[in-house]
């Protein structure tokens, strides 16, 4: 939260330019891979509401899913969803070079893919709990749809790169199910082993 808040304030104050930290399919294609990390260090306007929502979802994810899923979903949700969508755009442009011209070079940044992955992970863990009822399952689905609609209302205009949110949500589900891992639990040591 401190890094995201600090980067957002620095960008708003003009100390850091969007060009220095935002990714795009074109820029990643040029080999500027560090932008995959830095592009996930900003919240979009409205800043206060976005930061509050991001912090709330982080706390919820930590409480429901634990640290391993929180960090795995954040990293994989942001980086892998971005790369997968960028690769799809680049692949499509092989046959249609003028396709997605505006999106190809547009700055792509924000914590929304992280948030989408967290939402997918939280929804999955909640879905799999033993105390599930049809009403609980419906509430989970309605909540996910409501969060997606709320985020869309804040942003409004969508382009092809916004499909990374659906990919990130799916990755969050995979992480919560245990099929995708980067932060595995520490192995237990056998007391008999020297």
What does this structure look like?
Helices cover 67% and strands 0% of the residues. With 194 residues, it is mostly helical. It has one domain (2-177). Helix 5 packs parallel to helix 8, helix 6 (67-95) crosses helix 8 (112-128) and helix 8 (112-128) runs antiparallel to helix 9. It is globular, with a radius of gyration of 18 Å. The N and C termini lie far apart (41 Å). The model is unreliable at 186-194 (pLDDT under 50).
Silhouette: globular
Return Rg in Å. Answer: 18 Å
Residue stretches low in confidence (pLDDT < 50, at least 5 long) are 186-194
Could you tell me how far the N terminus lies from the C terminus, measured between alpha carbons in angstroms?
41 Å
What structural class do helix, strand and pairing data support? mainly alpha
> What fraction of residues sit in β-strands?
under 5%
Average pLDDT across residues?
Answer: 88
What order do the helices and strands come in, and which of them pair?
Blueprint: H1 2-12, H2 18-21, H3 25-29, H4 35-38, H5 47-65, H6 67-95, H7 101-105, H8 112-128, H9 134-155, H10 164-177
Short recap of the structure:
The protein is an all-alpha fold and 194 residues long.
Features:
194 residues, mainly alpha, 67% helix, 0% strand
